[in-house]
Amino acid sequence: SQQGEEDPQALSIQEGENATMNCSYKTSINNLQWYRQNSGRGLVHLILIRSNEREKHSGRLRVTLDTSKKSSSLLITASRAADTASYFCAPPWRTGGYNKLIFGAGTRLAVHP
Amino acid sequence: DTGVSQNPRHKITKRGQNVTFRCDPISEHNRLYWYRQTLGQGPEFLTYFQNEAQLEKSRLLSDRFSAERPKGSFSTLEIQRTEQGDSAMYLCASSPGTGSTKAFFGQGTRLTVV
Question: In the beta sheet, which residues pair with residue A93?
């Protein structure tokens, strides 16, 4: 399937540090999304990067996309305890004429005060 | 826009009982998805609707699972003869039908089968 695979599975850092999460996928895409999930809650869309973009910023988030390597990274700068969550990349999987989102196991980020 | 709403938020049921969950998507979103998520795992795709048509159902779903979306508005997910392995968080998401796959998720329904 086309699910993204996040790496590392878990990441533990101190407040103020940067957190980098990576995503690999298998087939050609026209965009890739990142989502965040706080414990016991639904997923929240963070950012979408298109295949013709190499880098995109949103606040403290920086996403890169390397279509030649079929990989993406999410950087959270100056992390806060509130950033503690699971992060998922979601490359669209086109099937039956429509796109659906397939999620991997995610990266569990813990930011310690 | 009140977001995607799921009810109930929590459900505890005895093994063998039937349960039904409801999802109210964002109005005017014609795409609706159901996912299941167990602890430590990512959301697992269950089924997809475009308007009232169920376009795909995961092979992982047994015949005990059924979903509907009458009139292309709210959706229900029913699990018959629940088993302990059905215990999970059930997530609903919706997205607009304009080519964007950006999905808006509800808070989920946590099912515990005892």
Answer: A100
Give the pLDDT confidence of A16-49 residue by residue, as tens digits. 999 999 999 988 888 999 999 999 899 999 999 9
CB contact under 8 A, B33 and A100: yes
Q: pLDDT tens, A93-104? A: 776 667 788 898
Are the C-beta atoms of residues B32 and B12 closer than 8 Å to each other?
no
Could you say which of A41, A92, A105 has the minimum Cβ distance to residue B42? A105
* Residue A108 CA to its chain's centroid (Å): 11
Angular region, B2: left φ>0, alpha ψ -120 to 50, beta rest: alpha
How much of chain A is helix, strand and coil, in % rounded to 5? Answer: 5, 60, 40
Give the separation between CA A16 and CA A25, rounded to whole angstroms.
30
CB–CB contact B33 A104 (8 Å): no
* Order of strands across the sheet that contains A5-7: A5-7, A19-24, A71-76, A61-66, A55-58
